[in-house]
Amino acid sequence: MSTFRTPVGPQPSNVYWRRRIVVGLALLAVIVIVLLLLFQPRGNTPSTPSATKTNAQSNAPTDPDAPCAPGAVEITAATDKSSYAPGENPQITLTVTNVGASTCTINAGTSQQEYLITSGDELYWSSKDCQTDATDAAVILEPNDPKSTAPIVWDRTRSSPSTCDTERTQVPAGGASYHLNINLGDLKSNDVQFILQ
Q1: Distance CA 191, CA 187 (A)
Q2: Could you give the CA distance from residue 158 to residue 171 in angstroms, rounded to a whole number?
Q3: Phi, psi angle pair for 40, to nearest 5°
Q4: Do the Cβ atoms of 137 and 108 come closer than 8 Å?
Q5: Cα 115 to Cα 182: distance, rounded to the nearest angstrom
Q6: Whole-prediction pTM
């Protein structure tokens, strides 16, 4: 009679069968572990380096020489006061702000700037009328870091290309209202109203 099918010993046969099952399961577990160690897939291990590469790319510095995209730059016109006493000359300023998310470059030179002062439908003064030696100037704009020009003083005179070398006439005052607008290339500023007494 087979001792495998009919265990011989002082214990009941079901005890020996349980022991054989436990030993068999333990042996099977060891075999599975060995097979996993030998044949584990190695193609998935570099997941961390590729994640690191992605992070490195996202944190890479932007190219400051990249031209500013349309809509990424806003320009703002400003006067130093809203009302000027007789004989007091307005000081006007241009501010350029990168409202985008990346550093970029814009030509903000005098070749691109045009300051305009109007009253009603009439143009009284343009910075282009008698401009000389206009230059280009590449300006690097960091996001949300406004850059302002030095103030330009308007002498309250009417400009025209024909009066560049002659004495100009004073514009009306005594409570007259004027508007400042600035162009920078294709960009247009806000409208600023001020009073000349």
Answers
A1: 13
A2: 6
A3: -65, 145
A4: yes
A5: 5
A6: 0.68
